[in-house]
Structures are given as C-alpha cells and as structure tokens.
Amino acid sequence: MATTPLTLKELSKKEGLLTSGHRMCAGCGAPIVVKMVLLAAEGPIVAANATGCLEVSTCISDYTAWKIPWIHNAFENAAATLSGVETMYRSLKKQGKISKDIKFIAFGGDGGTYDIGFQSLSGAMERGHDMLYICYDNGAYMNTGIQRSSATPFGADTTTCPAGSVIPGKTQQRKNLTKIMAAHDIPYAAQASPSHWMDLVKKVKKALSIEGPKFMNILSPCNRGWRSRTDDAITLSRLGVETCYWPLYEIENGVTKVTFKPKEKKPLVDFLKPQGRFKHLFAPENEWMLKKFQEAVDKEWESLLKASGNEQP
Amino acid sequence: MKLKGWKKVTPGAVCTVAGSALEFKTGSWRAFRPRWIEENCIQCLFCWMYCPDMAVNVKDGKMVGFNYDYCKGCGICALECPGKKGKKAIVMEEEGK
Amino acid sequence: MAKVVAVTGNEAVAEALRQVNPDVSSAYPITPATDIMQRFTSFVSNGKVKTEMILVESEHSAMSGCIGASAAGGRVMTATSSQGLALMWEELFIASGTRLPIVMALVNRALSAPLNIHGDHSDGMGARDCGWIQLWSENAQEAYDNTIQAFRIAEHLDIRLPAMVCLDGFIISHSIERIEYMEDDKVQNFVGEFKNLNPLLDLDHPVSYGPLILPDYYMEYRRAHAEVMSKVPNIVLDVASEFEKISGRKYGLFEAYRLEDAEIGIVILNSAAGTTKDVIDLFREKGIKAGLLKPRLYRPFPYEEIGNALKHLKAVCVLDRADAFGGSYGPLFIDIAASLYPHKNGPVLFNKIYGLGGRDYLPEHAELVLNELAEVAKTGKVKTIKEYIAVRE
Known about the structure:
The complex is a heterotrimer of chains A (313), B (97) and C (393). By secondary structure, chain B is of the alpha+beta class. Chain B contains 2 helices and 4 strands.
C-alpha cells in the first residue's frame, strides 16, 4: 500500500473520514485530534467511541459524521466493545469470511478513559487485542458540564471542584495515565498534541504499524471547560507542550523517548494564564499552588528526560 | 429530513448512510466569519489541518476558500495563519456587518 | 442416533454451545455459571470449536464484548449468574435496544446482600423487562434444548433480539440427570448459518452503531422494539415445532400439566415444577382436580395464551422464587394476575414466595399449597394474598 508523504499538501488530498456537520462546539480540539488520527491511517479503520462529547456530537439520529464503521456502546466500555469487534474480526478472518486487513481504533475522553472506562481499558490492553486506544484528554467531564476527572489538572476550577473561599479548585495532581498504560508493558504508549501535528501523525502511524495493544494520550483543548477563547485550541495545546505541561514522548517496548524538546522550556504560567479555570491561582494567597504545580511539571519532565537518556546538564 | 414513523426506523437505530452529517449544516452557528485574503496566503495549509469542522476547502493540495455551510467561526484558522510578511491571510469579521 | 447421557445442567448447556459453535464468546466466571464457561473454554483449547474467546475482566466487559462482537457480525454467546447479571445491567438494555441476537445462559442465583450463591430467580426477574427474550428451563434437558432453540429465535431476521436461557443454580446446574444429546450435525443444521444484519465489519457499507437519539425519535425506537417483542411468541412456536421434528421433544410457550379439567392450579417456574407435578399426581389420585402451568417463554410474557389456559380454574396459586420488593406481589404473580385481568370470572389468586437463596422446596410445601388451594376453591376466600413459605417466624 502506498503511503502518503507526510506533508499537509499530500495529506489534504486524502479523503476525510470524519465529515463536517458534526455538532462539536466551535473551536473544539477533539475533532481536530480525530481528523489527524484518521489522516494517519492508511488502510481500513473500524472505530469505537466511548460516550462523551465526541460521541454525542458526531452521531445523532440519522446523522453520522463517520465515514468508517463506528460503534458507540456506553461510557465505560469502548475498549471492551472494541475487544469484541476485533475478536469477531479475528474469528471471521480465521474462517476465511473476511480477507481485508483492518485496524481498530477506540476513542474516549478522559472521563471514559482515566476514570469510568479504566478497568475496561486495562483489561483490553492486558488481553493484547490489536487496537489503538486514543484518549482525547480535555481534563474534565466536559460533556456533562465540566466536572472534575482524575485527568483534571491541579488547581483547576471545575463545576464539582469549584474554586471557593476554602477549597481553591482541584487539590490533587493528575493521574499519570500514559505511564500507567506503559506499565501494562504494551508495545507502544505515547503522548501527542494537535499543535504538533506531524509528531501526532507519526505516532499514530507507528502505533498502527505495531500489532497488539497501543495507547495514545492526546491533549484536546476545550474552550468551554478551560474558560478560554474559541480560537486558541492549537495555541494552548502548543503552550501545553512548550511549558512541558504536556510532554511529547513515546514508550516503545519499554524504551522511553522524548519526541519534542522545547528549545526553551516556558514557565507553566504561560499555559495557565490564558485559561479562566486557573484564574484564581493568580491570587496572591494561591501563589503556593502555582509553585506546587510548576514543581510537579518539572519533576515529570525531568523524569522523562532521565528515562529517555536525555538529561539536561 | 421528514420525521419517520416507528415502522420505518432502522433496527437497533443503526445509521446506514456514512457521512450523513453533511446534511446537517452548522454554518448558522457562526458569529464571526473567516475571510481569506489570497495574496497573503503561503499555502501552508495549517488552516486546513487545524479546522475542527473540515470547513476549509482544498483543491489539489491548495487552500481555495471556506465552506460556510459548516464553518462555525471559531477563528482557529485566523489565529494559526502565519500569513505573509506579517500580514494574515485569514481574518475574522463579525457576521452581518 | 441421539446419545443418552448423565450430565449436569451446566454440562448440558456447554454441550449445546459446543454443538452450536459460535464465532465469539466473551465471558467472566461467576458461581454457579462458571462451570459452563470452564467446559466451553476446554472445547476452545482443544480445538473442538472455532470460537474465539474473550476472557474479560468483569461481566460488564463480558456483555460489552458480546455487543461489540455481535455488532461486528457473527454468532455470539455468554453465560452468567446473579451479581454478574446485575453488573451487566446497563449493557442488557444496550444489547436489546441495538437488536443484537446474543444468547446468554443465566444460571439463576440469588442477589446480594446478604451474599448467597444459591439458586433463586431474583437475578432473572430483575432483568425481565430489559428487552431480552427469556426462556426458562425445568431441567437439564430443557436447558439444553432451550439453548439450541434460543439461537434460532434470537437470530430470526424478524426478531434480532438477545435471548436468555434460565436454569436453576445448583439444583439444575450442578445435579446430574439423564438427558438426550442430539447429533452435532443435526444441531448445526437446525441452527444454520448466521445471517448478518448491518454488520460493522462490512467495509463496503460503513454503518454507525449507537447514535444519540433525541425526543424526536426515541419513542419510535421503543415502539418498534415493542412490536418486535410481540412477534416473538409465534417464532418461538415455529422454532419449537421444527425442533420437535428433529428431537421428538415438544415445546410451547408454557407447559400445561393436567390443567385442562383442573379446578385448582399452581403456576411455577423452572426446577420446582418437577417436584410440584409429582405432588399434583398424588392429589389427582385422591380425586382432587389439580393442575400446573409452567411458563417457558417468560419474556415476552404470553398474557393472552396463559390467561386462556387458566381462566377456567377456581383457584390458582402462583409460586415465586423471587420477591418484588415494594411491588407487593412476586413478579410471576403480577404477570399471572395481569393475564387473568380480562377474565371477569377467573380464578381466585394467591401468591407464595418460596425457595429464596437456595432454600429447599419440598413435596410437603407443594402439598400445603394444594391443600390451601382446595380450601380456597371451596370457599372462594383467600386469607392472605401473599406470604412466604418455609420461612422461620
């Protein structure tokens, strides 16, 4: 199969597999992520989707934005559902009833992946199904109205951990899901960001070329939940990467590689400042939170650099 | 779309027409409208890649305009547009003005 | 030639599943259903079936995997009990609403709390209105036969609904009985090739499964589901008559035992029907016109047919192996009462709750009930409409 050269010019000639007419909010990061993922695929794809923004907005009544076979079952079971689809594929292929090679991709938000769908995901990865699970991580239960998830960043104001006079937003750090998935000893786990499209597309291509369970965590800005502008999804995700809030790396067969190292690591506040969900952190009494958050980001970044044999002097 | 009666609905609510969402026009959501200024366009195609609504028309690998049937006017294209010599090739303008 | 064997109910169901040879099974162990999948996976490991197993990490994932596999396009089965069924709860509705013909053996067991692994009908009754077909089985033979027929019913192109085959935990699942197995090719011919309907793996016709349906359509989908349910009884009868031709065993929507000329009757599900029939024979010998009705197709419930079968009786006692808390009466009683509602001069009804959590149901219990029925038939009066039997005060 001919592979499309990795230029936007060539990619733009491919058929889009997620169409216009979906009902995601203006400026949402998730359809950009999905578009990039599907552009990276070369052969037939069958997708599963956890309940969430992406799911309810892309398939309503007779209107589906998917040009590929797609299944939504429930919130917590995209991985288990796709396990079923993939297993039927293997069964029918063995019986000679299907000849084509098909790749399987599951999409879930952070709620459906980090939290309620975590068991289903862990099980599917452990069983070794040939699938790529993509988490589009917007850091809260955005579909139900911006409630805290275990992916919500430290300090963030959400509708269930609102920044109040006693409790200043979320008091815990995020669950480090990418590393947890890598700890399943799956052949490939990675983090990507739509701002760095080529890095994202390359990672998806690599993941799809590997047989077995793969996991990618992709930053997906949500202007409603992040209390930001409708036009800044890409700018914010870029800042997420450049501040090392959202490091770009991959863990392939246990080997960690940082795939993008900012020339100059920007201070975390550059990422936080444009987002209304962190507004209260800039009040003088919450300075300690900014410090604590920055320390957590630094610690993770340093651990990644160390793991990738890339320690800064 | 005319609403069907219960005898006509698909078993299990399966959607059998792939990409039928194209029948649902989201352009009316727009408060701001992107305008393409061709002379400032360097054909980087960032607008195409970053558009959440697949509303940037591309022909033979070149940006040729917007699909206003679907563009929700988020403005990502305008913000990400590098333009030429500091001049943007996409600007956002208020609808109806 | 049919083979006569001495096997447990679980073994019989596993054998039926081996003969049907589904494409995929996704399952999680739970007592007392575990044994079915243990036996089945040994068929898989030894190449006796083509089935691909998904050994998931929970029952929720078991049913999710079945849904994915069934939507993908192929024959799918699983088995569970009690808490497992309860954990599948959400997925049961999704399987039926998506019209996926998954077949599941439900080895009936009590629900926690308090924790109890023994047989009663709380699990199946809790799931009676989730849009699945339910076939209930008195013994290992019926469990075997119902399992085979369930595939034909569920997969029928006019139906396409998931089906549960219920059998009593331990009492049937773990007791050895004499039953008849059919030949493999007979079963396979009977079940036939799986026919696809909008399979997800059809790349030439990409479909989307599981859309969001708003108030403008949700009711139409529910109405369509109700319509399909109404078609089930006739298909069940068609399949039964075909099955009779190859097995010699006759099935209907329910079993009516000495009911035609009866004056009093017991309505009861599953294994306890066997015990009750023996006691009814004793009462008949004494000249008391007793009979029994044992529902087989419990969902959809054949209200009209059952109403007609019971309307001539003077008194009927419904024995429930589950309670419907707050519903006042046991679930089977409520259905029987509803089926007799159109018949103004129908029998006097009362309800006993028995056998919960594996409590023995003995001939003496049936005897007590029949004596009370005889009395009620005479007086036309019921002392207590609903009460627990064989319970300590």
